[in-house]
Amino acid sequence: xxxxxxxxxxFLVVTSxxxxxxxxxxxxxxxxxxxxxxxxxxxRNDMKNLTPHIDSIAxxxxxxxxxxxxxxxxxxxxxxxxxxxxxxxxxxxxxLPPGFRSGLPLNEMFGAKRLRNLGYKTGLIGKWxxxxxxxxxxxxxxxxxxxxxxxxxxxxxxxxxxxxxxVIQENGKPTPEVGYVTDRLGDAACxxxxxxxxxxxxxxxxxxxxxxxxxxxxxDLAKLQHIKKTKRRxxxxxxxxLDDNVGKILNALRENGLNENTLVVFxxxxxxxxxxGANNFPLRGRKGSLWEGGIRVPWAMRxxxxxxxxxxxxxxxxxxxxxPTFVAVAGGTVKPEWKLDGTNLLPLMTGKTKDLPxxxxxxxxxxxxxxxxxxxxxxxxxxxxxxSNAQPELYRxxxxxxxxxxxAAMYPQKVKEYMRKLQSWESELTTPLGGPGSKxxxxxxxxxxKKLDLPxxxxxxxx
Length: 463
Description:
With 463 residues, the protein is an alpha/beta fold.
């Protein structure tokens, strides 16, 4: 009888170990520059060695050299990442202005809910920016725990009287205004990991750093005196605090024995905001544009025992790929009815394949009549339709990352081919639900700008 009991216990232990799922942690920066992390080959001298913890993710895993977000500003990029679908398909082309009366459409399912259906505990920490009314809150969209703010930005230091969309809340309840926000988010992530160390979990840490306002901690600024320009030094202080808290989170994984069973991702929500100190060298443009500087991002992944340390992946990838990849990591299967636009990167990450099949990636800003772009293999086409008499421009992006040499005149047939693909893709999209490009935007903008505090453009550094 005792032997039978021991055999049963052994079977249960083995079974439990066999079905343990890989944890997934996404560390998401906000408005950071392409050249502002030491794991990037073009890191600027003033930022070298400032991000050792973030750099360790790439060193111990893979760096993706041609990585993109599906949007060029905060809210659309999050909408695409969270759903695995081009956000323009459901009208989420623009940032949500403060007080917007809806959010990401309720008939779109978040990846968090799909992972929860696969047995994961889910947590979102930090910035939301996908809807203000209760029905659009994180706890209603698949996250078991939400600790963060609803709006796109807030002060890093405590408010005297915080607005309900800017206060740090925990599952809908405001929390006291104490401490430095980046530290609070890092501590909350560690708390989630500690509490769920025996579960399979998906944790999305959506830092507000280094998004403005430029409110670095005095002790961090004191260590950055080699940076002479005040704005750049303050921005660097935000990046340093970001890295310190990434270090705390990585340490929490290590102390809980989760290093080998956790996929860690670091990336940024859109191109760097040069107006607040970011540096996108050698890319053209910044946040709010579809030039490389607006959509191309730093991206690193670490998965001990699965991703070879020091790997560099040059295939173009996009944030829409996260959801199908995470589902595969979780042991699930993407169903055709989900209508996802991304690709499972698991074979590429683990070295089972050297290259993905050539595919076309698309971008649109502000609906029909505004900037639109695609990338296919070595080529990128961009058309600034909002400018009168603007013609499509073509770049061999694999060799011309700075987009300096327009080859449209040399390859007119390729321009026509890509314009047809853009038109076909755009025919599948809907009109933006709000903001530039939406129905009657100009009329509503005149009447409601003051009431809603609507930004003039979605590249506004305060949004």
